[in-house]
Structure formats: structure tokens, C-alpha cells
Amino acid sequence: MKNKLALMIADAVTVCTKKGLLPDVQLPHIEIEVPANPEHGDYASNTAMILASQAKQNPRKIAQAIQENLADSEGIIGQIQIAGPGFLNFRLKDNVWQKILREVLDQKNRYGCVNVGGEKKVQVEFVSANPTGPLHIGHARGAVVGDVLSNLLTATGYQVSKEYYINDAGNQMNNLGKSVLYRYRELLGEKMEFPENCYRGDYIRDISSDIIREQGNRYLTENEDETISCFNAIAGGVILEGIKQDLQDFGVTFDCYFSEKELYRENGVRNLLVSLQKQGFIYSDGETLWFKTTNYGDEKDRVVIRKNGDPTYFAADIAYHRNKFARGFDLLIDIWGADHHGYMPRLWAAIQALGHKKDDLKIILVQLVNLLRAGEPVAMSTRSGEFVTLREVLDEVGRDAARYNFLMRRSDSHLDFDLDVAKKQSNENPVYYVQYAHARICSILRMATERGMKLPSYGDIDPALLVQPDEKNLLKMMARYPEMLEGAARTLEVHRITFYLNELAGIFHGYYNKNKVVSEEASLSAARLVLVDAVRIVLSNALAILGVSAPEKM
RNA sequence: GCGCCUGUAGCUCAGCUGGAUAGAGCAUCAGACUACGAAUCUGAGGGCCGUAGGUUCGAAUCCUACCAGGCGCGCCA
Fold it and tell me: ipTM > 0.85?
């Protein structure tokens, strides 16, 4: 709808310039918005005001010229008003909104899908936690944001691939092996100091005792380095399996798990650095190799090969992102914890050196989660191993409530997650508000069929009977669903979907309390059944993108 | 010290890339079930949009400077 109006305005401006009513102006981006105040119509545009400065004319006069030259070939506009400093306010004909019902009912679970992505190939990389311990609550937010963003982009015409990058080649993994070895020895009766930078969580002890059960104490006498690297592999595998299981129970799946080790095969990382050095992006100071990230606005250059000869994490990441582009993705999206924001400039520098545009890599920062219980902060410390895991949150509040809560804020704002509120089945918990609307409609439809009514289709009803203000609002709200998805996809802001859902559910609940859907009047009942059925479809579609269930009963 | 993010109702947050009288939810107060599901609804109160300048027809939104909070500033990942 927005797009139709924008096109009509753009055409009208062109006609105006041809007729000489306007000087030869640059056509601006046509902004169509839904006015906050319903008295200002269904849609409004500020085009005349934007043009005013360029054309050096009174904006109201320009608005009038646009209005007079607007060709409404489909006959959807009921009324145009010029208001305020030069707004064009559009009121559409009632039957335009009523036709939305047919679209929703025809398209069913496809309603809302738009093709703004043009089938571009996009990769979303998220979670990517080291397999050194179970996922905790902080990872959970990134997991949901990435998963839902992927669903959203799929619905808006992108080919999406979801990827998890496994950092399994660095020091952290070595520390994991050491940690397992420490617990292994301890369980076999040795007394020793707890090694530096190692993991204390109980899951380490579990892995050690599994090794003892299966292989006994033979590693006590083996070469320590070999044992560590062996324990490394065992523990990494076990932990990664646990992570995958937790994610799956959280409703998050990946198309690809990419191992950092891949990048080092056949000297891949070093060969890439050599070629970048030849191109002048990398220089040596005699001991170390530096990447000239300052060429692209970073604060200082970054080391890629250390004094000891080992490549840095950054070096591997350059190779990783080159690998991603080489796989044919048009757009890369990385989802990171906000504490990594300082890393962004160097990665953007790297992809530009590789010949890509900065915009080809979008980075979404997800802020940290403050975990609360009844309003009080829950103490968490990774070092001591005392953190609340994703698994515990899932067990305590359930998948739907957990996911929905993570989606109620913009990603870059801090999120308070209160375990007690999230598991309450009350009005403090917005997920039930939306699910309840869906269940309520299902209940109405059930009741109608139980009374022997046949659920009508669009052709059976007279949509002009839907004249209540709330009925019109429901229709308009449903018409805006594709526009909302488009905006969310354009800005990569998944929280817009939850806000939309709350509003749609709210209008429905109000409508339900004022009006009886099934009444004595057969034709009115039929029209209303079709209306609420359409609302059910839209609720269900939006919840599906969020990966939250749409229950028929609660 | 430098950089990034955030300051909007008592609390938690939206505000659609600059629009018209700044909005929700929670909490508070007052109401609505012999009604298709009260996990719901109706109404009320509540604001110097951190502060001060600037840009223009118009600013919560953009620019500058301060103030407050968070996070970074490794040859860790």
C-alpha cells in the first residue's frame, strides 16, 4: 500500500515538472508514513515539504499541484487533504481495506512475505561461542536474534544461510584440555595447583570422569602435551554436542558449523597474508606482521603475525570472511556481543582490502543481558563457573517465554531478564497476551463449528458489514503487516515484530470485549468469523517468524 | 586520556532514518464475568525526551560542547 502511494506521488511530481508547475527538481525518496493521529488519514506524505526548499515554492502550493496531478488508476483513494505546513493526507476507500481479508485468506501462511531481498544470498553468523563450556544466558539473546533475523530475511525474499563459527584453533582450546587433565588427575587422587586460565565448571569434572570410566588411568603416564591435545578434542566434541542440543531445544538450528581449523588447512591463512602483503596491505617491522587497518579508519594498525610466529585471531578472521565471500554470499551479517564493538573497524578494513564494500558486512551488536530474579540481580561469574546456562533458563521459563523476552528490546539496548516474571503466567508477561489472542480466536472458530456453522470463505461474506472502528483498525493493522516486515528487514530490527504483535493482539482483545463475533445475525457473524480468522493467520505468521508457538488452547 | 553505545512517565521500554497534540506495558487508583476463554477489557492520573547551544518551515530524532551510566582501548578470543 505504501509502495503504491509512493509510486503515484512520484508520477505526479514528474507530471508537474513536465507541465512546468514545478522546476526541474531531483525526485526525492518518497516517504509515506502512518500518522500518529488517525484524524490525519490512513497514510501521510511529506513530499511537498521536502520539495519546497529545492523548488523554492510554498509547500502547500506544491502539495496542491501534486494532488491535482495524481492519477489514481486503481481507484483506492477516498480522499486527499492538504494539511498543516504541506502534508498530503490520504484516506483510502473502505473496500481497499476490506480486500485485505481476501489476500490474507488466499495467501494464508505466505501472507506478509514480500520480495525486497531479490533472492540475494545472505549469510547470518551468530552464537559462535567457543566450545569450552555450555551456552549461558548471554549467548541465548544472540541466538534468538540471529535465528529470528534469519526467518525474517527468508520471509522477505533473501536466501539465508545460518552459520556457527567454531573457534577451535586457539589457546582457549588448549586451556580446555588442561582443565580436563587437571580434574582427571584430581579424580585419580593427585593433589595439585589449579592451573591458570582454566575452566572450573562442573561439566569439566563430568568429562574427566567419563574418560576415567571409559579409558581408566592410562593418561597419567602419557606425554602431557599429547594428552592435553587429546583431551582437547574429546572435551570440545562433547561440549559442542551439548551446545547443539541446547540450541535445538531452544528452537535454533544452523545450516553450517564452520571450524576455524579449516582455515589453516594447506597453509590457507599464511598464504592469504602473503598475498595481502604483496598488495601492500600488510607490512613487517622485523619481528611481527601488521595489517594497515588505519587506511580504513581504524585507530591503529593491528598485528596479524605475532613475535612468536603465531597468527592472531584477527588473521584467521580475515581468512574466514574471505572464505564466506568466496562461497558466493552477497551480504554477510555477523552478530556479536556488544563488548566486541572495538573489533568492528579492523574487520571492515579487512574486507575492504579484500575488495568488498564496507556495507557488504553488517554487524549487529547485541547488548548484555542482566539476569534478575524477582527484581534482584543474579550474580554470575564465568571464571568460577557460576553462570546461569541457557539450559537452566529453558527448563525454568520455557522456550516461548524465553524467546519472546529476548525480542522485546532493540538489540543494542541492555535487557533486563527477570526469571520470575518470565515464568509467570500473568499479565506481566507479554508473550501470553499475544498467544492468548490466538487461542481465543481458535476457540471462537471451534465453538462456531461445534454449533454446526460452516466456516465461511471470503466469497461468502459481505465485507461491507465490517464497519466498527475496531474492525477497520484490525483490517488496517493487517494491511500494515507486510510493510512492517519490510521495514524490519531493511533495518535488521527484529524487535519491531513483537511490538507489532502486541498492538494487533491489543486491538483484537478490545474488539472481542465489545463485540460478539457469533451472533443471531447470520451474515454479520459470517463476516466477523472471516475477519477473526484472518487475524489468527497474521498472528500465527508473525509468531512463526519469532519461533514462538501459536497455541490453539492454553 | 581516547573511542563506541545508552540517557524518553515511578519502573521497563517503543518512537517507522526530520513531521502534526511524544506513545505502550508494568505499577497506582476507579470500574466490567448468569457473555464466543477475565492469561481479557474500559477509564484516570503521571513528561523541561540528561543539560546548554546550533542547523530549518519543523528536532526525542541531525551537529557541537558538557553531565551521568555501560563497554572497549592485547602480539587474548
Answer: yes
